[in-house]
């Protein structure tokens, strides 16, 4: 029976463990904090649960045109944060139970590779459990799935009270009166959006010319305009040089010397891979200059029998990608037929309000001539359902290959973009033509009607 040891119990690690158990391996999963990893306990699940609450307030605040909204609705931060914590803990417990039921030996503690037998086709791990004595164990296959940690700035020391990482937000008893969010990547934009909806004053420090610089420009600009319309102070072309506590709160100093005062600062300047203290260097495992563990398309590191998956690889920091990398690693390691990971069709969603979802080729690819595609953008302002619910900010953008008319990608900005991207993702994955999408009956009136309409406009006669 193959012995599989997995370090880290986030989506990469626990999905891999379930596959390994299904294939009859002897599986040990070592996890430092809780099953589900940072994804479930401090990053993805808590943030989306918090956003679920903030979205309700947005719906109420933005419904005055319908004759039923009120600007007076407020949130109880302690109740919202309490629910966030409970839901995350419950989700972690569910995953732990699933692993145990599958026969996985779930060890709470920390693990690292031991160098002694590194090149003998048997790998040795040193495990320091939370309870009990440290011990060594052997494995035929090792998966490194240790995730990442919020990056901080030495000039902005976090204290968990006023200057915070996103993992410390849910301990706040009060809603920040004025939150300064440093960094306008996906994480910063999501929290800025959610706290604005909750009723905090929000200043967003964005180092580039727009929020979410890695997303489709028209989409990110649309979201940025909504932020400003709702009262967010968005500072483009600004970098935080330092943040410090004051008597009443915090001040964030920008590169140009401007000082912004607030009650709290949230540092969202990216993440650092958890590749230290795993014994990688001594084991001969390559780690790049940013701390990521390079892997190939079946999750192999440079050392035979040692695989890596998830955020620690720097491939694409999404739970869905981490889980797929983990599964692929185990299928490959245990000799199953496996398809290398295909990242071109990964659908992603930013849970701002409005949401921003995308899949497949990008506008930048089209504009640069990297791909030969045509595209169309349909604003929701002309969609009857969007008008009825008074959520007309946003659009559907669709791309098709010029040679075949097959759908190549798309972008949706809107209140349920995370759902609306699925028909486009399906078309991309299943190689449907714009004609096939356009001939599909959609509900009238519906936001998804815009997907079919965009496809119709891309048909060539
Ligand atoms: C705020 C935020 C929101 C996000 N929202 C989304 C979203 O909506 N959708 C989405 O798809 N993605 C989202 N992501 C990204 C997603 O959370 C990550 O891509 C995902 O968590 C990566 O999973 P992982 O298994 O690589 O690592 P993690 O989930 O980070 O798990 C790794 C685990 O390994 C443990 N570990 C580390 N070292 C050791 C050791 N030596 N021994 C034992 N255990 C160890 C860690 O404690 C951790 O629990 C979000 C990220 C952030 C920061
Ligand atoms: N909904 C989701 O699926 C979701 C949500 C959150 C994160 N994620 C994943 O996590 C990845 C990382 O996103 P992220 O936003 O955490 O990190 P990021 O690295 O993409 O963004 C950090 C931003 O902070 C800026 N920055 C750095 N130093 C700064 C300073 N001193 N002042 C002002 N700005 C500064 C950077 O220029 C950058 O734009 C995403 O690409 C995504 O894959 C996904």
Automatic annotation (TrEMBL):
Pfam families: Pyr_redox_2 (PF07992), Pyr_redox_dim (PF02852). InterPro entries: FAD/NAD-bd_sf (IPR036188), FAD/NAD-binding_dom (IPR023753), FAD/NAD-linked_Rdtase_dimer_sf (IPR016156), Pyr_nuc-diS_OxRdtase (IPR001100), Pyr_nucl-diS_OxRdtase_dimer (IPR004099). Residues 347-454 form the Pyridine nucleotide-disulphide oxidoreductase dimerisation domain. Keywords: FAD, Flavoprotein. Coiled coil: none annotated. PANTHER family: MERCURIC REDUCTASE, NAD(P)H DEHYDROGENASE (QUINONE). Belongs to the class-I pyridine nucleotide-disulfide oxidoreductase family. This is NAD(P)H-quinone dehydrogenase. The lineage of its organism: Bacteria, Bacillati, Actinomycetota, Actinomycetes, Glycomycetales.
